[in-house]
Amino acid sequence: MTADLDTHPALLKLREFDPQAVEDARIFRGEVTLYVHRPNFLRTCEFLRDDPSLRFNFLSDVTALDLYPQEPRFEVVYHLLSMQSVQRLRLKVRVGGDDPHMESAIPLWPAANAFEREIFDLFGIKFEGHPFLRRLLMPEEWEGHPLRKDYPTEGYR
Amino acid sequence: MPVTLERIPGHEDSVILSMGPQHPSTHGVLRLVLELEGETVVRALYDIGYLHTGFEKSFESKTYNQGITLTDRMDYLAPLSNNLGFCLATEKLLNLEIPPRAQWIRVLLTELTRIQSHLVWLGTHAIDLGAMSVFLYCFREREEILHIFEAVSGQRMMTSYFRIGGLALEPPLGWLKGVQKFVKSFPARIDEYEALLTRNPIWLRRTQGVGYISAEDAIAYGLSGPSLRGSGVDYDIRKKEPYSGYEKFDFKVSCRTEGDVYGRYLARVEEMRQSLRIVNQAMEGLPEGPVKANAPHIVMPDRESMKTSIEALIYHFKIVTEGFHPPVGEVYQAIESPRGELGFYMVSDGSPKPFRCHVRAPSFANLQALPKLIEGRLIADVVACIGTIDIVLGEVDR
Question: Least CB-CB distance to A110: which of B221, B241, B334?
Answer without folding.
Answer: B221
